[in-house]
């Protein structure tokens, strides 16, 4: 009888401790540590591909992309971080307001259309130089993307 009680006790002991271990493993670890977030600003002339770039990074459908008329914000998730990207419209009447959105940025993405006209490319150069010299951006990392490399009229990165 003692053996039965002992074996029964052992079985119940294992049975009662196993759910506790499972509970602790599933519930007591707490939430995963938060991924660091970085605030970026994405600028470039209208039609350079800013919206398409962000849609691609967010795995969104490229269908029905329309030009950004003001600004939009997208959270771009990566395995180790989240990029909160403020995309600013690139129309002439909006570019003069870009600097109002620079505060708090930790990096800049400048997108240019490598297949654009000489005039538009010169305008893009001027806007890039202006951004590079702006007090809130001049110390930040810049990523400059020469977009539309797949178009026949595209200039090489060296030409841009």
From TrEMBL:
List of residues binding GTP: 44-51, 90, 147-150
Entry-linked SMART domains: ARF (SM00177)
InterPro entries from the UniProt entry: ARL15, P-loop_NTPase, Small_GTPase_ARF/SAR
SUPFAM superfamilies (UniProt xref): P-loop containing nucleoside triphosphate hydrolases
PROSITE patterns reported in the protein's UniProt record: ARF
A Gene Ontology molecular function term of the record: GTP binding
Coiled coil region boundaries: none
Binding residue positions for Mg(2+): 51, 68
Domain of life: Eukaryota
Signal peptide: 1-17
Keywords: GTP-binding, Magnesium, Metal-binding, Nucleotide-binding, Signal
Family according to the record: Belongs to the small GTPase superfamily. Arf family.
Protein name per its UniProtKB record: ADP-ribosylation factor-like protein 15
Upper taxonomic lineage: Eukaryota, Metazoa, Chordata, Craniata, Vertebrata
Primary gene name: Arl15
